[in-house]
Write a structure and sequence with these properties.
alpha/beta, Cobalt-precorrin-4 Transmethylase, domain 1, 2 domains
């Protein structure tokens, strides 16, 4: 049996703004060097993947296997005649079986953490291939580091419910768990819903609970603030006041 290739987990920048200028701050030279060598890719979004590879002066054009993926499903499969509708994670990893190294890249941040990729990583392990995570930015860890909240005990919740009543109920549940366990609760939201999420926190959570917002992390426009809910209410008394937060990637962290 031929030697299997390695699956490299390649972090992406956390935003498009000044991507080339960001690189020295968010990606080590070894991460950039290794990513530039890879010729076979599976990515969350082809456009952002090509933008990063262009910024790092990839040694080869994207003539490679480049298949888009999404949480729990393979977004490109239905319109990809080469692979067909029934594509499975192992099918995308065929270059590994031929001894080729591959890269797995998220649209932003690190693969498999609040982003797609876990199924592929597990499939690579089942094949017996080596999996190599590369160092780069994670908005979850950056937010936790900068929050001043409990970094010894925390839980990531992904996305909270969109329905207003379900979202409020979930926030109350997380607050109870946070208080009981002294555990920082972390979640993310689709940027255009930032105002709705913040107003839900302000209107639902106890005044003394601490909430951190990590906005545009690692970007020139970065904003990080940890305040009590009572103080957030003073800063953002209504939806109109929240407009500056709209459409900006944000991590929410709560400690009751």
């Amino acid at each position: 049996m031929s030697k299997l290739g390695t699956l490299f987990l390649v972090p992406n920048t956390l935003g498009d703004d000044a991507r080339t200028a960001q690189l020295p701050w968010v990606l080590p030279n070894e991460t950039i060097s290794q990513a530039a060598k890879l010729k076979h890719w599976i990515v969350e979004d082809a456009k952002t993947a090509r933008a990063l590879l262009k910024a790092i002066d990839s040694v080869s054009p994207l003539i490679c296997t480049i298949q888009e993926m999404q949480m729990g499903e393979w977004r490109g499969a239905a319109r990809n005649a080469k692979y067909g509708d029934a594509i499975k994670p192992a099918d995308l990893l065929k270059p590994l079986l031929a001894g080729n190294d591959m890269g797995l890249m998220s649209e932003a941040g690190v693969p498999g953490v609040a982003d797609p990729g876990a199924e592929l990583v597990l499939a690579a392990h089942k094949l017996g291939a080596k999996v190599k995570p590369l160092i780069g930015p994670s908005s979850i860890l950056l937010g936790l580091m900068a929050s001043g909240l409990n970094g010894q005990r925390f839980a990531f919740q992904g996305y909270l419910p969109h329905d207003m009543h379900e979202r409020s109920a979930k926030l109350k549940q997380l607050e109870v768990e946070s208080r009981k366990l002294q555990q920082t609760q972390i979640w993310i939201e689709t940027p255009y819903r930032n105002t709705a999420m913040l107003m839900a926190c302000i209107n639902t959570l106890a005044p003394q609970s601490l909430l951190c917002l990590g906005v545009d992390l690692s970007l020139p426009s970065e904003m990080i603030a940890t305040l009590s809910i009572a103080d957030w209410r003073k800063r953002y008394p209504n939806e109109a006041a929240c407009v500056p937060l709209q459409n900006r990637p944000t991590v929410f962290l709560l400690l009751a």
